[in-house]
Write a structure and sequence with these properties.
By secondary structure, the chain is α+β, with helices and mostly antiparallel strands. It folds into three domains: about 10-180, GAF domain (Beta-Lactamase); about 185-260; about 270-424, 2-Layer Sandwich (Heat Shock Protein 90). It has helices spanning about 10-20, 25-40, 85-95, 150-225, 230-260, 270-280, 285-290, 310-325, 355-360, 375, 385-395, 420-424; strands at about 45-50, 60-70, 80, 100, 120-130, 130-140, 270, 295-300, 305, 330-340, 345-350, 400-405, 410-420. A hairpin with a 7-residue loop joins strand 1 and strand 2 (about 60-70).
Length: about 425
């Protein structure tokens, strides 16, 4: 009989085995079924399935499954074997199945640890996928069993060639599952890290609130008596008052960030167009004083959003205030509000200092302060919470905030919110 021809009755059996192996994506189950079916198909005493390790060195094999009638297969799991010029190495490098009728007649003995009885007959068939050989199936018979025939080698190669795709798919699925597990663990660690940071910020802001209120009350009393103090005393009082106000604003910003997504925040219909007009109007005098052009383009009709007016006002204060702060005299600021479909878009554009590409990815992070701010506002860098607060509030309202900027040419911050009908 030609070794490349497999009898029809055996092909039917192989087809059933292939269907069973391919019925799952669990790699241990796939390889275990392959080992068991190979043993049954060839009437072997034991069968081992090896897969090439995905790490270096490439010739390293990992035993992943086995099937035997009278010894513990689990003993083999995880065994690492390195093959060079032996039988498995020949199969891996040539991609051609090998048959050893009698191990005593060949120098290429397969060395397997802790096998109760040395094999006398061996069959090895490669698992060949698109990328090459990914593993080897080894069937063995012991002393009293007859040797394997060429027809049985052809039968093993037929089975191996047909199940290789199932093995490769199971490997890919296992890699994906491992990647997902790593990502989930990373996400859980990051969420726990964020939770702890929020807890620390919450405790700090809570502990600061009472003493700050008391200190500001007393410093305001002293400010009323500045005329009776010496110049040095007045300067000291003003410095303390200014620093206390900055610290109070920091605590307020922290509280806003922590409570932006609180379920206790009250949302109601807000005319965002009117809110933008009023907020921009508050900055007109400051823009004139700084010799800046301020242009506001807002639709006359109301633009309703479902939100919290106080928090949305904080968003506008920060975006417009930053535009004024980082634009030199002679520059301009353009505030535009337009409704498109179920979204309303606010754009605050300036001709200021701009933001470098390296900083753009970090400007919404808590306490992040970009480089070069001291050159524009020495001693007035803030705490790096303004844009973080903007992002938290906008996202809590179901919106997004984006920024485009060219260093030295200016920046444009865009806030997109759902209109009230969509939010409802």
């Amino acid at each position: 009989m030609n070794t490349s021809i497999v009898p029809q009755e055996h092909l039917n059996t192989v087809y059933v085995y292939i269907q069973d192996v391919a019925a799952t994506l669990d790699l241990p189950t796939v390889t275990e079924r392959l080992a068991v079916h190979t043993r049954d198909l060839l009437h072997a005493d034991y069968v081992l399935v090896y897969l090439l390790a995905e790490s270096e060195p490439p010739e390293q094999l990992v035993e992943v499954a086995g099937a035997a009638a009278d010894w513990d297969v689990a003993h083999y799991i995880g065994t690492l074997l390195c093959f060079e010029d032996d039988l498995l190495g020949t199969v891996i490098h040539s991609g051609v199945g090998q048959r050893v009728a009698h191990t005593s007649s060949t120098a290429r003995l397969l060395q397997l640890p802790d096998v109760p009885s040395a094999p006398t007959a061996l069959l090895c068939a490669p698992l060949i996928h698109a990328t090459g050989v990914i593993g080897v199936v080894v069937a063995a018979r012991l002393t009293d069993a007859p040797p394997f025939t060429s027809d049985e080698l052809a039968l093993l190669q037929c089975l191996a060639s047909q199940v290789t795709t199932a093995v490769a798919h199971a490997q890919c699925y296992q890699r994906e599952r491992e990647s997902v597990a790593v990502l989930r663990q990373s996400l859980a660690e990051r969420q726990e890290h964020d939770r702890l940071k929020d807890l620390v910020l919450q405790n700090v802001s809570h502990e600061f609130r009472a003493p700050l209120t008391i200190a500001r009350g007393y410093i305001e009393l002293l400010e009323c008596e500045l005329e009776s103090l010496s110049p040095e005393q007045r300067e000291a009082i003003l410095i303390v008052a200014r620093r206390l106000r900055m610290l109070s604003e920091l605590v307020r910003d922290i509280n806003t960030i922590l409570h932006a997504k609180s379920p206790n925040i009250q949302y109601e219909p807000v005319d965002f167009a009117a809110l933008v007009r009023e907020a921009a109007g508050d900055f007109c005098r400051a823009a004139d004083k700084a010799a800046l052009g301020l242009d506001v383009v807002v639709e006359d009709e109301p633009v309703w959003v479902l939100g919290n007016a106080v928090q949305l006002w904080r968003v506008l204060d920060n975006l417009i205030g930053n535009a004024l702060k980082f634009t030199l005299p002679g520059g301009r600021i353009d505030i535009t509000l337009r409704q498109t479909g179920d979204r309303v878009c606010l754009a605050v554009a300036d001709t200021g200092m701009g933001i470098s590409p390296g900083q753009l990815a970090h400007i919404f992070e808590r306490f992040y302060q970009g480089e070069g701010l001291d050159r524009w506002h020495p001693g007035d860098r803030g705490m790096g919470l303004g844009l973080t607060m903007v992002k938290e509030i906008v996202e809590a309202h179901g919106g997004q905030v984006q920024v485009e900027s060219d260093l030295g040419k200016g920046s444009t911050f865009t806030v997109s919110l759902p209109v009230m009908q969509a939010a409802s």
